[in-house]
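Researcher: Good morning. I'm working through a list of sequences from a screen, and I'd like to move beyond sequence-only analysis. For each chain I'm collecting a predicted structure so we can compare shapes side by side. This is the next one on the list. No need for commentary yet; just the structure.
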Amino acid sequence: MLRVAEIFTSIQGESTYAGLPCHFIRLAGCNLKCSYCDTPYAQSFSAGSDTNIDFLVKSAEDSALKLVEITGGEPLAQSETPLLCSELLKRNFTVLVETNGSKPVSVLPNEVVKIMDCKTPSSGMVDTNDFNNFKFLDSKDEIKFVLADYNDYLWASSIISTYKLAEITQSLLLSPVWGRIDTAQLVSWILRDHLPARLNLQFHKIIWGPDKSGV
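Model: Good morning. Structure tokens for this chain:
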């Protein structure tokens, strides 16, 4: 069983898959409390309802899509998440897992596309980053930095350089916190520094606004 906050079908709002139709399984519960969390309704482990894996797989099949994202909350806070991934992979889904980077990604099947968040200073959770996770990522995986200010940008740039992340994946994502940082200014910093990273806007917030859930 998995604790599920919501299930819905929409377009993928972030990552290199942005804009593609996608079936979402949002798990409940997170081990972190980021200052810029945009899904507080899924943060508590008491949110949502217990749901069996067969039901979740069927919901993906009923969506008639082949792209599934498991998000949260924090998916790796629940022990059966790798099993759900395996069952979806058996049915030839492309499986994305968005994780906060504080828990071992090595528990996931290798075929899963891991979208790993590196917690920046403004999150208040920077000390929870498990940089050992970088060893378990490859070129299909993605590393995301959520930025609220210039200090976050400088920190992300340092991590990209120190850990040679561009040699692991070309999908290094810089995601501005909604309403907290000027996007044009962020672009100017990326261009100035020739940073090997991709601007990662949240399409779902642009389309439906920052407060709508289930999209």
